[in-house]
Structures are given as C-alpha cells and as structure tokens.
Amino acid sequence: MPMPAALVTRFAPSPTGELHLGHAFAAMVAHEWARASGGIFRLRIDDLDHTRCRPQYEEGIYRDLAWLGLGWQGPVRRQSAHMNDYAAALETLKGQGLLYPCFCTRADIQAEVQAIAGAPQGPEGPLYPGACRGLSAQVAMARIADGARHAWRLDVARLPGGEALTRSIGDVVLGRKEMPASYHLAVVLDDAAQGITLVTRGQDLEAVTPLHMALQTVLCLRRPGYAHHRLITDERGQRLAKRDGARALSTLRAQGATPADVRRMLDWPAMQALITSRLEA
Ligand code: GLU
Whose CA is nearest to atom 6 of ligand 1? Predict the structure, then answer.
C-alpha cells in the first residue's frame, strides 16, 4: 500500500450564523483527509463580509468544533486581519493589466442583464454584462479622480483558460467598492498562506475552482489539490442554509444529540471509507 502524502487541509466557515449539519460534514471531511494522511487540519474564519459577521457566531464555531472533537493545528487565520495582503495582490494584478475599474451599481447591472434576452448565468447569478470593460483608461481614471465609487473586476479573458472562464464565470469582482478584497481573491491567497495542499469544499463551489486555479497561476502561488464533497440536504432534498435553525449544531446539542448521533445523521462511515480508499489509491 503506498504511503499517502501528509495533507494540509482547512475548514473555512464564515461567522454569519450558527453552524449546521452541512458545516459539520465539511469540517469532518477536511479533518479526516488530514488525519488519515498524517497531515494537518487548519481553521480559518472567513470574516470578510463584516456587516454580516458576529462575534457570537465565531465563538459558536470554536464551541461546535470542540464538541465534535475536531481540533485544529496552528493559529486561526482571520481574513479581516489580512487586508494589506489582499490589497498588495490586487496591486500586482493591476500591474499585470488584469483588472479594470467597474462603476456599476447593482441596479445598473440588473437593468443591463434584463435588457439581454437569455443573459448568461454563472454560479453566482447572471454574468457581468461588461458595461465597464470597454471604458478607456482615460475615462476610467477621470472618474476615479472625481471620487466615483468603483470595484475592481478581473478581465477573465486575459487569464490562462480565459475563453472558458468568460463563458462560465465572467468578470468577477476581486476588489470590492468598500474593501480591497473579495471572496475569490482572499480564498486563493489564504489557502497559499496557510500552506493548504488539499482544498476540500462543497460541490456548490466546484464551478469556481477553475477561476481559483487561474488566479494561482497569475499570482505565482502553489496550486493545491481540490476535492469537492456532496452537500447535505434536508428531507426535501434542499441544501441546508444558515436560516434552518432546526439543524444548527447548538440546537441538536441542546436537544441531547451527541457527536455520534451527528455522525450517524451524516452517514459518516461511508464518507470516511471513501476518503480512506482515495488515499490508498
Ligand atoms: N468560506 C467559504 C464558505 O463558507 C469556504 C471557502 C472555500 O472553501 O472556498 O463557503
């Protein structure tokens, strides 16, 4: 049997609500890949969206992981503490001519999308229709000098594999109007900073993984492996959401459930066997 490489994995929840069974599964999967390979499981708090983050939810994350017996190694990385790193990467990408300023409001984009019959959809909604892509540098710079609020969008067509990304993901925002970062930029920089060698996450994010790989290439970051796991659904087949309080781990715990009950509800032995077999393959 070949010795598996020791993997470095992570669980990266956002403290915007109580963790539920879907989060427990994601954390257990990441922990198991690391444990079974003799590697390291890390924790990150994805708290970029500070208007929706709450300290009590972050405390809940620590409490729930402790209850599940999922200990992490190394310091917890909090995205909000690394704005300078994101800003620096944004400058690098600007220097490479890969970004353009976008002055559109949500309403502008919505109106433009509605005017296009069969506007293409991406994993996060309609693809950006591109109003600001064609602005001349002169016009854009004049508007910035006037103090116009703007985001920075990635000109995906210029990336390696850009043609496919143009159709599937479009020109996503890498620097938001209110901060020099976005989910897509932060996630690739954080995974690199934490030395993650296997990113485990839900199948809902599979569609954006090619974008993350292209960003790793242009930012000269080491590329981790990716393993996308199934999403936990309720009895109607709907993906669990943070508003489904009934499946919050804290609620289950208050009702007397044990971590063994959680593993049973998640059909955990099957997933564990799958991870073991993939490590041995
Ligand atoms: N914070 C992200 C989430 O809660 C996970 C980050 C990632 O795996 O890309 O969905």
Answer: 12
Q: Does the beta carbon of 17 lie inside 6 Å of ligand 1?
A: no
103-157 pLDDT tens trace: 999 999 999 999 988 889 998 889 999 999 999 999 999 999 999 999 999 999 9
Distance 161 CA to ligand 1 centre (A): 23
Beta carbon of 46 within 6 Å of any ligand 1 atom: yes
* Fold of domain 83-176: Glutamyl-tRNA Synthetase; domain 3 (3.90.800)
Pairing verdict, β 173-175 and 151-154: antiparallel
- If you take atom 3 of ligand 1, which residue's CA is the nearest one? 13
* Domain ranges for the chain: 8-82+195-280, 83-176
The CATH code of the domain at 8-82+195-280 is 3.40.50.620
Q: What global pTM score does this model have?
A: 0.94
